Sequence to fold (345 residues):
Amino acid sequence: MKLSWSYRLPKERQIGTRAPVASADTVLVAFHYDKADFFESTLVAFERMTGEERWRTTIPHVINEPVLAQDGSVYVSSFSGTVHAFDSNGKKLWDCRCGDRNMGKPCLVAGDRLAVAETGGGASKTWCLDLRTGSIAWAFENHGHSYGLATNNGRVVHATVLAEGAGVRLHCVETSSGRSLWAADSAEWLFQPIVQDQAVLIGARGSLRAYSLQSGDLLARLDLEDQEAIDGQMLSAGDRIYFSTDSGRVGCASLQSERSFFKVKHSLQSGWFAAFEGSIRGRPTMTGNAVAVLSQEEGIVLLDPAAGNRLSALKMSKGNGGGLLYHRDWLYGSLGAEVRAFGLG
Fold:
Protein backbone atom coordinates (compact mmCIF):
# COMPACT_ATOMS: atom_id res chain seq x y z
CA MET A 1 0.00 0.00 0.00
CA LYS A 2 1.10 3.59 -0.65
CA LEU A 3 0.02 6.97 0.66
CA SER A 4 -2.63 8.44 -1.67
CA TRP A 5 -3.75 11.53 0.26
CA SER A 6 -3.58 13.13 3.67
CA TYR A 7 -5.39 15.88 5.53
CA ARG A 8 -4.45 17.88 8.59
CA LEU A 9 -6.94 19.95 10.61
CA PRO A 10 -5.43 23.46 10.80
CA LYS A 11 -5.04 26.00 13.61
CA GLU A 12 -6.74 24.23 16.53
CA ARG A 13 -5.05 23.23 19.83
CA GLN A 14 -4.83 19.86 21.57
CA ILE A 15 -6.49 18.01 18.69
CA GLY A 16 -7.69 14.45 19.04
CA THR A 17 -9.54 12.32 16.53
CA ARG A 18 -11.85 9.32 16.34
CA ALA A 19 -11.53 6.32 14.03
CA PRO A 20 -12.65 6.97 10.42
CA VAL A 21 -16.00 5.58 9.23
CA ALA A 22 -17.25 5.18 5.65
CA SER A 23 -20.40 5.02 3.55
CA ALA A 24 -20.13 4.31 -0.19
CA ASP A 25 -17.53 6.79 -1.50
CA THR A 26 -17.40 9.03 1.57
CA VAL A 27 -15.06 8.76 4.57
CA LEU A 28 -15.93 10.71 7.74
CA VAL A 29 -13.60 11.68 10.55
CA ALA A 30 -14.48 13.41 13.84
CA PHE A 31 -11.92 15.80 15.38
CA HIS A 32 -12.16 17.37 18.85
CA TYR A 33 -9.98 20.13 20.31
CA ASP A 34 -9.72 22.94 22.87
CA LYS A 35 -11.69 26.06 22.01
CA ALA A 36 -11.98 29.26 24.08
CA ASP A 37 -11.47 27.52 27.44
CA PHE A 38 -13.91 24.76 26.46
CA PHE A 39 -14.17 22.10 23.74
CA GLU A 40 -15.36 21.94 20.15
CA SER A 41 -15.53 19.25 17.48
CA THR A 42 -15.55 19.20 13.69
CA LEU A 43 -16.95 16.34 11.61
CA VAL A 44 -15.45 16.26 8.10
CA ALA A 45 -16.64 14.20 5.12
CA PHE A 46 -14.03 13.35 2.45
CA GLU A 47 -14.25 11.78 -0.99
CA ARG A 48 -12.60 8.46 -0.24
CA MET A 49 -10.10 8.29 -3.14
CA THR A 50 -9.05 11.94 -3.49
CA GLY A 51 -9.51 13.41 0.01
CA GLU A 52 -11.60 16.24 -1.42
CA GLU A 53 -13.78 17.74 1.30
CA ARG A 54 -17.49 17.15 0.67
CA TRP A 55 -18.92 18.78 3.76
CA ARG A 56 -18.18 19.62 7.36
CA THR A 57 -20.06 20.61 10.49
CA THR A 58 -18.98 22.00 13.84
CA ILE A 59 -20.46 20.84 17.17
CA PRO A 60 -19.81 22.77 20.42
CA HIS A 61 -18.50 19.87 22.56
CA VAL A 62 -16.47 16.65 22.32
CA ILE A 63 -18.07 14.17 19.90
CA ASN A 64 -17.60 10.42 19.49
CA GLU A 65 -16.98 8.24 16.47
CA PRO A 66 -20.07 8.56 14.25
CA VAL A 67 -22.19 5.67 12.99
CA LEU A 68 -23.74 5.46 9.54
CA ALA A 69 -27.07 4.03 8.39
CA GLN A 70 -27.51 2.22 5.06
CA ASP A 71 -28.87 5.38 3.40
CA GLY A 72 -25.70 7.29 4.35
CA SER A 73 -27.25 9.30 7.18
CA VAL A 74 -24.86 10.08 10.03
CA TYR A 75 -25.44 9.85 13.78
CA VAL A 76 -22.99 11.20 16.33
CA SER A 77 -23.22 11.70 20.09
CA SER A 78 -21.52 14.35 22.19
CA PHE A 79 -20.45 14.92 25.76
CA SER A 80 -23.25 17.49 26.08
CA GLY A 81 -25.74 14.61 26.31
CA THR A 82 -27.00 15.19 22.77
CA VAL A 83 -27.27 12.92 19.73
CA HIS A 84 -27.02 14.71 16.34
CA ALA A 85 -28.33 13.36 13.02
CA PHE A 86 -27.31 14.48 9.49
CA ASP A 87 -28.20 13.28 6.02
CA SER A 88 -25.54 12.02 3.59
CA ASN A 89 -24.86 15.61 2.44
CA GLY A 90 -24.36 17.00 5.94
CA LYS A 91 -27.79 18.60 6.32
CA LYS A 92 -29.02 18.56 9.92
CA LEU A 93 -31.93 16.15 10.42
CA TRP A 94 -32.49 16.42 14.17
CA ASP A 95 -30.92 16.80 17.61
CA CYS A 96 -32.02 14.88 20.69
CA ARG A 97 -30.92 15.99 24.14
CA CYS A 98 -31.05 12.91 26.36
CA GLY A 99 -29.79 14.64 29.48
CA ASP A 100 -26.69 16.45 30.67
CA ARG A 101 -24.28 13.50 30.98
CA ASN A 102 -21.52 12.50 28.58
CA MET A 103 -22.66 10.11 25.87
CA GLY A 104 -20.70 7.18 24.47
CA LYS A 105 -20.63 6.03 20.85
CA PRO A 106 -24.09 5.18 19.45
CA CYS A 107 -24.97 1.72 18.14
CA LEU A 108 -27.56 1.07 15.41
CA VAL A 109 -30.17 -1.46 16.57
CA ALA A 110 -33.30 -3.07 15.12
CA GLY A 111 -32.92 -1.36 11.72
CA ASP A 112 -34.70 1.88 12.63
CA ARG A 113 -33.30 2.75 16.05
CA LEU A 114 -30.04 3.59 17.78
CA ALA A 115 -28.93 2.98 21.34
CA VAL A 116 -26.46 5.08 23.31
CA ALA A 117 -25.28 4.91 26.92
CA GLU A 118 -24.16 7.62 29.31
CA THR A 119 -20.52 7.71 30.43
CA GLY A 120 -18.52 9.38 33.17
CA GLY A 121 -19.56 10.80 36.52
CA GLY A 122 -23.28 10.74 37.26
CA ALA A 123 -24.04 8.42 34.32
CA SER A 124 -26.95 6.05 34.86
CA LYS A 125 -28.96 5.41 31.68
CA THR A 126 -28.99 3.71 28.29
CA TRP A 127 -31.18 5.48 25.71
CA CYS A 128 -32.89 4.26 22.54
CA LEU A 129 -33.91 6.75 19.83
CA ASP A 130 -35.94 6.57 16.63
CA LEU A 131 -33.58 7.10 13.66
CA ARG A 132 -36.14 9.04 11.64
CA THR A 133 -37.31 11.55 14.22
CA GLY A 134 -34.86 11.44 17.13
CA SER A 135 -37.71 10.77 19.55
CA ILE A 136 -36.92 8.68 22.62
CA ALA A 137 -38.21 5.10 22.36
CA TRP A 138 -37.09 4.03 25.85
CA ALA A 139 -34.56 4.66 28.60
CA PHE A 140 -32.99 1.87 30.64
CA GLU A 141 -31.60 2.48 34.13
CA ASN A 142 -28.14 0.85 34.07
CA HIS A 143 -26.89 2.51 37.31
CA GLY A 144 -23.46 3.76 36.24
CA HIS A 145 -20.76 4.56 33.70
CA SER A 146 -21.06 2.38 30.60
CA TYR A 147 -18.65 1.27 27.89
CA GLY A 148 -19.38 0.52 24.22
CA LEU A 149 -22.51 -1.28 23.03
CA ALA A 150 -22.94 -4.32 20.79
CA THR A 151 -26.12 -5.74 19.31
CA ASN A 152 -27.48 -8.91 17.71
CA ASN A 153 -30.74 -10.84 17.53
CA GLY A 154 -32.88 -8.09 19.05
CA ARG A 155 -30.58 -7.56 22.01
CA VAL A 156 -28.10 -4.87 23.02
CA VAL A 157 -25.29 -5.61 25.49
CA HIS A 158 -22.87 -3.37 27.36
CA ALA A 159 -20.80 -3.29 30.54
CA THR A 160 -21.48 -0.77 33.29
CA VAL A 161 -19.31 0.29 36.23
CA LEU A 162 -21.97 0.61 38.93
CA ALA A 163 -22.16 3.74 41.06
CA GLU A 164 -20.67 3.93 44.56
CA GLY A 165 -18.25 1.04 44.05
CA ALA A 166 -20.99 -1.59 43.66
CA GLY A 167 -19.02 -3.56 41.05
CA VAL A 168 -19.32 -4.10 37.31
CA ARG A 169 -22.33 -5.52 35.48
CA LEU A 170 -22.82 -6.81 31.95
CA HIS A 171 -26.33 -5.88 30.81
CA CYS A 172 -28.45 -7.45 28.08
CA VAL A 173 -31.49 -5.37 27.07
CA GLU A 174 -34.28 -6.07 24.60
CA THR A 175 -33.99 -3.54 21.75
CA SER A 176 -37.74 -3.27 21.15
CA SER A 177 -38.72 -2.40 24.72
CA GLY A 178 -35.65 -1.60 26.83
CA ARG A 179 -36.54 -4.51 29.12
CA SER A 180 -33.65 -6.18 30.94
CA LEU A 181 -33.23 -9.76 29.72
CA TRP A 182 -30.32 -10.69 31.99
CA ALA A 183 -27.36 -9.21 33.86
CA ALA A 184 -24.03 -10.76 34.84
CA ASP A 185 -21.93 -9.30 37.66
CA SER A 186 -18.14 -9.27 37.67
CA ALA A 187 -15.53 -8.59 40.33
CA GLU A 188 -13.13 -7.36 37.62
CA TRP A 189 -13.74 -4.50 35.21
CA LEU A 190 -15.40 -5.34 31.90
CA PHE A 191 -14.96 -3.16 28.81
CA GLN A 192 -16.00 -3.33 25.12
CA PRO A 193 -18.19 -6.26 23.94
CA ILE A 194 -18.65 -7.79 20.51
CA VAL A 195 -21.11 -10.51 19.51
CA GLN A 196 -19.90 -13.61 17.65
CA ASP A 197 -22.74 -15.96 16.73
CA GLN A 198 -24.59 -16.47 20.03
CA ALA A 199 -21.68 -15.47 22.28
CA VAL A 200 -20.87 -12.11 23.84
CA LEU A 201 -17.09 -11.68 23.82
CA ILE A 202 -15.78 -9.00 26.13
CA GLY A 203 -12.40 -7.80 27.31
CA ALA A 204 -11.79 -7.57 31.05
CA ARG A 205 -9.10 -6.74 33.54
CA GLY A 206 -7.01 -9.91 33.51
CA SER A 207 -9.03 -11.93 30.99
CA LEU A 208 -10.98 -12.34 27.78
CA ARG A 209 -14.46 -13.76 28.41
CA ALA A 210 -17.35 -15.31 26.51
CA TYR A 211 -20.94 -15.14 27.80
CA SER A 212 -24.09 -16.66 26.34
CA LEU A 213 -26.11 -14.04 24.47
CA GLN A 214 -29.30 -15.88 25.42
CA SER A 215 -28.76 -16.47 29.15
CA GLY A 216 -25.74 -14.47 30.31
CA ASP A 217 -23.99 -17.62 31.53
CA LEU A 218 -20.18 -17.50 31.47
CA LEU A 219 -19.12 -19.88 28.69
CA ALA A 220 -15.34 -19.53 28.74
CA ARG A 221 -12.48 -17.43 30.05
CA LEU A 222 -8.91 -16.87 28.84
CA ASP A 223 -6.64 -15.45 31.55
CA LEU A 224 -3.96 -12.89 30.67
CA GLU A 225 -0.59 -12.30 32.25
CA ASP A 226 0.12 -9.67 34.91
CA GLN A 227 -3.53 -8.55 35.12
CA GLU A 228 -3.31 -6.60 31.86
CA ALA A 229 -6.64 -5.36 30.51
CA ILE A 230 -8.33 -5.72 27.13
CA ASP A 231 -9.83 -2.25 27.38
CA GLY A 232 -10.25 -1.37 23.69
CA GLN A 233 -12.56 -2.46 20.90
CA MET A 234 -12.06 -5.96 19.53
CA LEU A 235 -12.33 -7.45 16.03
CA SER A 236 -14.16 -10.67 15.13
CA ALA A 237 -12.99 -12.17 11.83
CA GLY A 238 -14.07 -15.71 10.99
CA ASP A 239 -13.44 -17.85 14.04
CA ARG A 240 -10.74 -15.51 15.39
CA ILE A 241 -10.88 -12.61 17.82
CA TYR A 242 -8.21 -9.89 17.66
CA PHE A 243 -7.69 -7.47 20.55
CA SER A 244 -5.19 -5.11 22.17
CA THR A 245 -4.23 -4.71 25.81
CA ASP A 246 -3.26 -1.75 27.96
CA SER A 247 0.32 -3.07 28.09
CA GLY A 248 0.83 -2.54 24.34
CA ARG A 249 0.21 -6.10 23.17
CA VAL A 250 -2.04 -7.31 20.36
CA GLY A 251 -3.47 -10.81 20.68
CA CYS A 252 -5.42 -13.39 18.75
CA ALA A 253 -7.76 -15.98 20.26
CA SER A 254 -10.60 -18.24 19.16
CA LEU A 255 -13.77 -19.52 20.79
CA GLN A 256 -13.93 -23.31 20.47
CA SER A 257 -16.98 -25.51 21.03
CA GLU A 258 -17.01 -29.27 21.69
CA ARG A 259 -20.28 -31.18 21.75
CA SER A 260 -20.63 -34.18 24.04
CA PHE A 261 -23.98 -35.97 24.34
CA PHE A 262 -26.43 -33.22 25.38
CA LYS A 263 -23.82 -30.65 26.43
CA VAL A 264 -21.60 -28.18 24.61
CA LYS A 265 -18.29 -27.27 26.21
CA HIS A 266 -16.76 -23.92 25.25
CA SER A 267 -13.16 -22.78 25.58
CA LEU A 268 -11.15 -19.71 24.57
CA GLN A 269 -7.84 -20.69 22.98
CA SER A 270 -4.92 -18.28 22.71
CA GLY A 271 -3.36 -18.01 19.26
CA TRP A 272 -0.53 -15.48 19.48
CA PHE A 273 0.60 -12.17 21.00
CA ALA A 274 2.66 -9.39 19.41
CA ALA A 275 4.32 -6.63 21.46
CA PHE A 276 4.41 -2.95 20.44
CA GLU A 277 6.07 0.21 21.65
CA GLY A 278 3.62 2.56 23.28
CA SER A 279 -0.16 2.31 23.29
CA ILE A 280 -2.47 0.81 20.67
CA ARG A 281 -5.10 3.15 19.23
CA GLY A 282 -8.53 1.97 18.13
CA ARG A 283 -9.33 -1.63 17.27
CA PRO A 284 -7.30 -4.01 15.08
CA THR A 285 -8.60 -3.97 11.48
CA MET A 286 -8.62 -6.76 8.90
CA THR A 287 -7.27 -5.56 5.55
CA GLY A 288 -7.90 -8.68 3.48
CA ASN A 289 -4.62 -10.54 3.98
CA ALA A 290 -3.30 -8.82 7.10
CA VAL A 291 -4.35 -7.43 10.45
CA ALA A 292 -3.62 -3.70 10.70
CA VAL A 293 -2.74 -2.19 14.09
CA LEU A 294 -2.31 1.52 14.87
CA SER A 295 0.49 2.17 17.35
CA GLN A 296 1.14 5.58 18.89
CA GLU A 297 4.90 5.11 18.44
CA GLU A 298 5.18 2.82 15.40
CA GLY A 299 2.42 3.97 13.05
CA ILE A 300 0.35 1.36 11.20
CA VAL A 301 1.79 -2.15 11.46
CA LEU A 302 0.48 -5.01 9.31
CA LEU A 303 0.54 -8.47 10.91
CA ASP A 304 0.08 -12.02 9.63
CA PRO A 305 -3.42 -12.97 10.88
CA ALA A 306 -2.44 -16.59 11.58
CA ALA A 307 0.88 -16.11 13.35
CA GLY A 308 1.18 -12.45 14.34
CA ASN A 309 4.43 -11.91 12.44
CA ARG A 310 5.13 -8.38 11.20
CA LEU A 311 4.66 -7.98 7.44
CA SER A 312 5.13 -4.25 6.82
CA ALA A 313 4.51 -0.79 8.28
CA LEU A 314 3.04 2.54 7.19
CA LYS A 315 4.01 5.91 8.66
CA MET A 316 1.60 8.02 10.71
CA SER A 317 2.12 11.25 12.62
CA LYS A 318 1.80 11.10 16.40
CA GLY A 319 -1.22 12.49 18.21
CA ASN A 320 -4.22 11.88 20.44
CA GLY A 321 -7.06 9.44 19.88
CA GLY A 322 -7.18 7.79 16.47
CA GLY A 323 -8.12 4.56 14.76
CA LEU A 324 -8.21 2.61 11.50
CA LEU A 325 -10.72 1.82 8.77
CA TYR A 326 -10.42 -0.61 5.83
CA HIS A 327 -12.94 0.22 3.09
CA ARG A 328 -13.04 -0.91 -0.55
CA ASP A 329 -9.37 -2.00 -0.57
CA TRP A 330 -8.19 1.27 0.97
CA LEU A 331 -6.80 1.73 4.47
CA TYR A 332 -7.51 4.94 6.39
CA GLY A 333 -5.77 6.00 9.58
CA SER A 334 -6.44 8.95 11.88
CA LEU A 335 -4.24 10.19 14.72
CA GLY A 336 -4.21 13.61 16.31
CA ALA A 337 -4.86 16.30 13.70
CA GLU A 338 -4.14 14.07 10.71
CA VAL A 339 -5.90 11.59 8.43
CA ARG A 340 -3.97 9.45 5.94
CA ALA A 341 -5.38 7.29 3.13
CA PHE A 342 -3.43 4.38 1.67
CA GLY A 343 -4.42 2.82 -1.66
CA LEU A 344 -3.14 -0.15 -3.59
CA GLY A 345 0.28 0.38 -5.09
